Amino acid sequence: MLEVSNLHAAVDGQEILKGLSLEVPAGEVHALMGPNGAGKSTLSYVLTGREGYDVTAGSAMLDGEDLLALAPDERAARGVFLSFQYPLEIPGVPALTFVRTALNAQRRARGEPELSAPEFLKLARGAAQALKIDFEMLKRPLNVGFSGGEKKRMEILQMAMLSPRFLILDETDSGLDIDALKIVAEGVNALRAPDRAMLIITHYQRLLDYVRPDRVHVLSAGRIVASGGPELAHELEREGYDKYARAA
Amino acid sequence: MSLAAAIRTRDAAALPSRREEDWRWTDLRGLIRAVPEPSAPVDPREVGQGAFDHLAETSFVVANGYEPARIEVAAGQAAIVSLRFLSRGEGAHAARAEVRLGEGARLRLLETYEGRGGYLAAASLAIGLARGAVLERIVLAGDDPEAVSVSQAEVTLAPAAEFGQVVAASGARRQRIETRVVHPGGDAKLRLDGVYLLDGKRHADLTTVVEHRGVDGITMQMTKGVVRDQARGVFQGRIVVAEGADRTDARMEHHALILGDRAEVDAKPELEIYADDVACSHGNSIGALDQEALFYARQRGIPEPDARALLTEAFIGEVVDRIRFESAREIVRQWAAERLRRG
């Protein structure tokens, strides 16, 4: 599914990713852990095409297609979804309007027919119910005045409705209490599928107790410095990142 | 000096100039060398339909200054009226309208400025609300890009009256919509909103002056603008709270998006407070579209032009949503969407 090879990327002329290589096969959930400043969020922005994140070498392919050559919205239409660490507030745009605009834009880009209003509303009601989000909240401007936990739940709701193929969750567990964490984790687990893959970026292993990863990678100073099974997350929780910071 | 006087006397020296502080950014004296000939009458067959005519019970047309309109709503009555200021040709003309609401009367005034040509037009409105009267004034100002058009309204409120206004302006060579309100306090409520959407070389100036003269007055004001190309937006808002006008609650906001390197916005929010125990505030911001929000929308699959349109419409929507008359609100929303999407 995703193949990242020897990726170098810079922000404001400063190199943050220094030869990162990573493969996430279809059907698998990988966790990317690492200390602050290792380049975790940079990787999520490079994969989604944010301006100001300049790739200087290497490649990132999704099912053999060069992601880096595509505009952010084209990548989204190919099925790349990023759950933001800090979801944006969009004043004046009701959440439902925003998601319907996004979903229909993606469908148009893929040559699929747009969803009718009743079809869309049915989908939205189902997703809201599964994530225990009050449907009335979806009529309010997206994320405006929402709590941190509500914003994260709205990210998962959008993810469920847009039905992406490659999911990146950037610190989705931050700012969640334990109940919200469980709801979010259930939402994420419901999206696990043989034709989907996920990259969960997290500083702590807390979310990984609920969304069990197939592989865990340690990112330090712009490179993957260790990879292993789920037990690696526990080791990191016990021993911290010091050893890897030195290795980098 | 006033534009109407300059038109009447055909004296260009009488035009408002940048030497007057209030006209600093809309200098007509520097723009116009000679006041044009008086405008010819408009052929009634050319009048056509206005944007709001289908919503109105009564329609008034003031074409190239004729005839002055007088709109009266008797005490306790309600009305929906459209008032069209129509301009044709290259001449100069001054139009007048008077609007009077009796005690407890209600009026929805749907006002348009429509034109074709490089005319010089002045419109003066005298608006008076008796005790407890309610007026919602919706102004769609769509003059010709080559025209110079100035509308000046003097509004007088009695206690417990309610005056709400939204001006939607698309600019002209020079376009100014000015509203002056004498606010008696005494639980009278005033809402002065505005939107300007400018492209090309268009210029729009939204100027308001509110004078609070009594205790317990409320003024809520929100203006938003989007300018692109070489357009120029001007916002001047002044709220004066006279001595003794205690417990006045006045809030003014102006926010503008500049979507072109050569576009310009000039803003002057002013609060002059001579009373105690007042709650007055103003907020003003001028900037570009939020790049983070734009990326967020694109990450969700919305192509860049659509994402820009969505975010600018939402920006303007906050003002449009304040229009109470729903059918008129949708016309203004449509008007805004058409302008924002053609960029």
Characterise this structure.
With 248 residues, chain A is α/β, with parallel strands linked by helices. Chain A has a domain at 2-89 and 164-247: Rossmann fold (3-Layer(aba) Sandwich), CATH 3.40.50. Chain A has helices at 40-48, 72-77, 95-109, 117-130, 148-162, 178-190, 231-239, 242-247; strands at 2-11, 14-24, 29-33, 53-62, 65-66, 80-83, 166-170, 197-202, 215-220, 223-228. In chain A, the strands form 2 sheets. A 6-stranded mixed sheet of chain A has the order 6-7-8-3-9-10, sandwiched between helices. Chain A has a 4-stranded antiparallel sheet with strand order 2-1-4-5. In chain A, helix 5 (148-162) runs parallel beside helix 6 (178-190). The mean pLDDT of chain A is 93. Helices cover 14% and strands 46% of the residues of chain B. Chain B is built from 4 helices and 17 strands. By secondary structure, chain B is mainly beta. Chain B has 2 domains: 1-35, no CATH class; 44-341, no CATH class. Chain B has a 9-stranded parallel sheet with strand order 1-3-5-7-9-11-13-15-17, covered by helices on one side. The radius of gyration of chain B is 20 Å and the shape is globular. Chains A and B meet through helix 2 and helix 3 of A and helix 2 and helix 3 of B.
Number of domains of chain B: 2
- CATH superfamily heading of the domain at 2-89 and 164-247 in chain A: P-loop containing nucleotide triphosphate hydrolases
Q: Would you count the extended β strands of chain A for me?
A: 10
CATH class categorisation of the domain at 2-89 and 164-247 in chain A? Alpha Beta
Could you report the average pLDDT of chain A, rounded to the nearest whole number?
A: 93
Look at the helices and sheets of chain A and give the structural class.
Answer: alpha/beta
Low-confidence stretches of chain B are none
Largest interface: A-B, 31 and 23 residues
Major β-sheet annotation of chain A: 6 strands, mixed
Q: Topology as H/E string of chain B?
A: HEEEEEEEEEEEEEEEEEHHH
DSSP helix fraction of chain B = 10-25%
